[in-house]
Amino acid sequence: MKVEQIYTGCLAQGAYYIESNGEAAIIDPLREITPYLEKAVQRGVKIKYVLETHFHADFVSGHVDLALASGAQIVFGPNAQPAYPAYITRDGEELKLGNITLKVLHTPGHTLESTTYLLKDESGKDHAIFSGDTLFIGDVGRPDLAAKSDLTQDQLAGLLFDSLRSKIMPLANDVLVFPAHGAGSACGKNMRKETFDTLGNQKQTNYALRSDLTREAFIKEVTDGLLAPPAYFPLNVKMNREGYANITEVLKQGLQPLTPDAFEAAANETGALVLDTRKPEEFTKDFIPNSINIGIDGNFAPWVGTLIPDLKLPILIVAEPGREEEVVTRLARVGYDYTIGYLQGGMEAWKKAAKETDQVHSIAAKELETAFQADKHLKIIDVRKASEYGSEHLETALNAPLEYFNDHLAAIPKNETVYLHCAGGYRSMIAASILKARGFKKLVNVLGGFQAIAETSIPKTAFVCPSTQV
């Protein structure tokens, strides 16, 4: 028996490869399926099952393409109603894989079809659970993503409480827990950085598994403080339920190299969004006017999904030369299939062609300190989360969290110099590029963000519930 976790940090997502006696199963695969196919060929095994724990909201699964390419059977738990051929299991059903068994534990709550797969080894001993978004390390799945069903989020949270206590907590303490996500995912609130654990340790440390927790208290704790999910979540659920374009075709379309003239013409003719994925410190110096900066080396896909609501919007890519395929692939992971090409040669080619460029003025935190000493009424916008802002912020700064930034544009003055900062500089450059594209000209980005500003003498304060929020 072989069990391998295939963890993708940028999505905080765990897929799983399970093998026994010449047969393999893949659980919750990413959209790019080549690594799974290559692994099966290298191991000389046949992929028998592609197991889905639920209809994922935060990424497009590779189950449809992988089943077509390998001949494997797509498997869902009870209540799933996909628009393509798949095997819908019964609660308690056992699936044979070589010499081992995968038992279906229907665990609704995160979604109605959410299912945990219990792996029994060659001797029949319970070995591990693949819990999807039902149980995380340190947390459980949020119950609001399926609240458009006939059930409210409180009713779904109640189902989750029942699922955990009737299906998962009775299992032995030495059973391993392999979840679909880790810290950084928007599918839960308090996930830990570890990507697996024993169930016994989770019973001791996970707030949601406390033995004295009542159903009512569980519902309150699980639903308290939930932020609105990114806008692309329901669109990804739809793609995972109904099917999607083949990843090979998406890559072929997106990896069209365009000269500066062709790139400019495509932008003008299609109305495509120009997405610049370079580092913020490179973007600030020179960029194509009206382009949006979301750096590939940051929390790229979730920010794209949060700030670009239309999955069918044509996208043109500006990237560091050699990273174009990575960008198109990571966009496709979250359902952005309409990339129509990239700038061949990157910004250097654009500048050599004498095309128009724009800049964002950036200053060090010490320069902000000097400016503040001269004018205590500087317009400073803090784009961190409300919780970050509440823990400590500049006394005069207004909070416009980046995840809701499009809702706050009207409150930011166009005719005054506006200073932008986040925690380290990644999010503030995204905000600056959004403002630039909407005609704001008097913008100053603070390099190093609040981490650098904290070392200055500019007055700071803290409170739990920020009230100066635009």
TrEMBL record:
Coiled-coil regions, chain positions: none
- Residue ranges constituting the Rhodanese domain according to the UniProt record: 268-359, 374-462
Q: Which PROSITE patterns match?
A: RHODANESE_3
User: What InterPro entries does UniProt report for this protein, alphabetically?
Assistant: Metallo-B-lactamas, Mito_Persulfide_Diox, POD-like_MBL-fold, Rhodanese-like_dom, Rhodanese-like_dom_sf, RibonucZ/Hydroxyglut_hydro
Q: Which SUPFAM superfamilies match?
A: Metallo-hydrolase/oxidoreductase, Rhodanese/Cell cycle control phosphatase
Entry keyword set: Metal-binding
Identify this protein by name.
MBL fold metallo-hydrolase
